[in-house]
Amino acid sequence: MDSEAFRQWSLKAAEWGVDYRDGLRERPVRPQVEPGQVLASIAASPPEAAEPMEAIFADFEAKIVPGMTHWQHPRFFAYFPANAAPVSVVAEYLVSAMAAQCMLWQTSPAATELETRVVDWMRQALGLPEAFAGVIQDSASSATLAAVLTMRERALDWQGNKSGLSDAPRIRVYCSDQVHTSIDRAIWIAGIGEDNLVRIPTGGRFRAMSPEALESAIVEDRKNGLLPAGIIACVGGTSVGGTDDVAAVVEVAKRHGLYVHVDAAWAGSAMICPEFRHFWAGVEGADSVVFNPHKWLGAQFDCSIQFIRDPESLVRTLAIRPEFLKTHGRDGITNYSEWSVPLGRRFRALKLWFLLRAHGLEGLRTMIRNHVGWSQGLAQRLGREADFEITSEPMLSLFSFRHAPAGVDDLDRHNLALVEAINRDGRIYLTQTRLDGRAVIRFQAGQFETTEADVDQAFEVIVALARAEGEPAAN
Fold first, then answer.
1. Does residue 296 sit within a domain?
2. 168: which DSSP letter?
3. 175 plus 296 within the same structural domain
4. How many angstroms separate the CA atoms of 286 and 20, rounded?
5. CB 339 within 8 Å of CB 417
6. Domain total in the chain
7. Residue 94 lies in a domain
8. Would you say residue 137 has pLDDT above 60?
9. Which DSSP state fits 64?
10. Fewer CB within 10 A of the terminal residue: the chain, N end or C end?
11. What is the separation of C-alpha 371 from the centre of its chain, rounded to a whole number of angstroms?
12. Residue 330 — very low, low, confident or very high, per pLDDT cuts 50/70/90?
């Protein structure tokens, strides 16, 4: 592809992107395809000769787009959002065009220094104290793994990376049953083992882990010769928004010298609004905090910020400094590859810089406040319907509900069928979860361009399909 063709197709792709976003409301949120359908439409062997871009782009439109779930759809109410505000997309064009490898200060000085600045902007926006420094990771999964590795090394007096775990005492990490499965994976990869992830009983509206049960578990483990290393607290869990009492968790941790990591991957974005910060009161006492601007704030995936109270502990855990990665003749520089598991790093800070400047904190606060208010309004409307029950009250913009009409014996089957009927219909997209052993339906508002009218339509779709004769089957 020569320069002129590069220009032509870059413009074509940008224009396609605008038209795509403008037409999302006319598309079903989830694609109407069967497993294997897209695969069967793609040539089984790679081409020997070059093909024209016209043919490639036409196949993209005809074969790929119809098989995509549209995460930027304003009526995407499933999972958590993976927003890509238009200004973030523009920034990503520039990142892709430069294609920089930002692993070291010397490999892209501006990328490193912009990351330092915008991460501190976000620290200020969230109300975190100056004691926290931060780094942009690819996802909360990587940030949690980095935190678990750090708590492991600290508990082993920094000998785990050197000597391995075979002769080490069994390490214990504590959390509730509301945490994301990324915590389980971090425990696996860190070599701690699933049997040593201790699930603390939860209770209350937000299913917080019991501080008393947490302390008892730590004391009992120490008595039995095990090695408590850290606690992972949850703020806004994926299932129904489970949220721990962070201040109480930190107090327990301090008494026992344990490392605290706070997973606020989704809910952390809402903390730019001061009125929501009570949900993570005490967070200033944590050692590590993660939240994802690529969820609710509008920074295109991937963009996850990990704040760390003691960066030296993280660097001591993860940094490897062979001669070819050293920067000679420069003092006081930061190499963010030493703060993360991967060596390679994308220029993620640029889209966050564009986003914050183009929308301002107040613009982003307004969006989040709207989502919370609209979601709470929908929960109230559904709760007033005689055949619906709200199974978990809204945590920010997330709640769960259940359709429970008289005369239906198997409500789990009924509600799972209802979710599938809603998603086949295509106007909105929801997901299910299990709460206290029962199948329930999740709703969260968070897509960047969602309006109140989109949430109103969700009410209409949910109620109409729930009550449609024979859809879903009652028994």
1. yes
2. S
3. yes
4. 42
5. no
6. 3
7. no
8. yes
9. I
10. C
11. 17
12. low
User: Is residue 353 one of the residues assigned to a domain?
Assistant: no
| Rounded Cα gap, residues 407 and 398, in angstroms | 29
* Residue 93 domain-assigned (yes or no): no
User: How far is residue 173's CA from residue 218's CA, in Å, rounded to a whole number?
Assistant: 9
- Report residue 41 CA to chain centroid gap: 32
Residue 402 pairs in a beta bridge with: 389
* The pair of three-digit structure tokens given for residue 36, joined into one six-digit string: 């294997």
Phi, psi of 133, rounded to the nearest 5 degrees: -105, 175
The pLDDT confidence band at residue 328, using thresholds 50, 70 and 90, is very low
Q: Answer yes or no: do 331 and 438 share one domain.
A: no
Spell out the residues 6+ positions from residue 302 whose beta carbon is closer than 8 angstroms to its own: 138, 139, 294, 346, 348
Instruction: Characterize 11-47 residue by residue with b for buried, 16 or more Cβ atoms within 10 angstroms of its Cβ, and e for exposed.
Output: eeeeeeeeeebeebbebbbbbeeeeeeeeeeeeeeee
Sign of the Cα torsion 88, 90, 91, 96 reads: positive
Residue 442 has which token pair?
């999740």
In angstroms, the CA 431 to CA 419 distance is 7
Q: What angle do CA 392, 397, 400 make, to 5 degrees?
A: 25
DSSP assignment of 15-52: HHHHHHHHTGGGS-SS----TTHHHHHS-SS--SS---
Q: Are strands 197-200 and 171-176 parallel, antiparallel or unpaired?
A: parallel
Query: Is the separation of the CB atoms in 109 and 115 below 8 Å?
Result: no
Residues 241 and 307 in one domain: yes
Token pair of 235, please? 């703020």
pLDDT score, position 323: 52
Q: What DSSP line would sit under 128-145, residue for residue?
A: --TT-EEEEES-HHHHHH
pTM of structure: 0.90
261, 287 in Cβ contact below 8 A? Answer: yes
